[in-house]
Amino acid sequence: MNLLRRYLSDFISLIFPELCAACHASLVAGEDLICTNCLYNLPYTNFHQQPDNIVAQQFWGKLPVRAAYALYFFNKGGKVQQMMHHFKYDGQQRIGNILGEVAGRQLAENDIFKTADYIIPVPLHKKRMKERGYNQSACFAHGLAEKLNATVEVDNLIRAVATKTQTHKSRFARFENMQEVFAVAHPERLANKHILLVDDTVTTGATLEACGIELLKVPGLTLSIATMAYAI
């Protein structure tokens, strides 16, 4: 019976092959959404080895961040953009878990990131959450938690106001658009904790900055940031 199922599965794969979310090549047995070639050769930043990396520099003088990181460089039209599109708009939320595990293995080697107590995803407004069905940043957070032995908090940082798209806005306009959008529901749970705030892609950092400002109102809280990609 198992042999028959395998033959049937192989036959279906010939007619309807599963494709890599990054390069659209056919996946082979044992590959899950992203082919082995892409997992090895996507444009990794290695920012976990560079304390003063580009993402960290975006928050200098704006937000006291202990460490900041992005897993990949994001180029328009590149494989990372293709993968992120499938992740955000085609319902392939498992991509976030996979990338979280990849990032988590890197961050577990870093003395700062591996001390995170809680991982908090940038929240979606309930209306957007209903439309999409899942929070892509939360998928990433759960993958990270698997490797960092940290707890994911998905109900503490909340988006109280729905905002319009940030696309084509300047950094200042993006930051203004995010003013008074976020709130911390249970600050007592985060007091004196190291929080890893996560998002999918960092461009100007305005959304992360707005979230960080609210989180840092909690007594004794220290903040680090991790994202799946940095847009260049």
From TrEMBL:
InterPro entries assigned: ComF/GntX_DNA_util-trans, PRTase-like, PRTase_dom
Origin superkingdom: Bacteria
PANTHER family: DNA UTILIZATION PROTEIN YHGH
Homology family: Belongs to the ComF/GntX family.
Name under which the protein is recorded: ComF family protein
Organism the protein comes from: Mucilaginibacter pankratovii
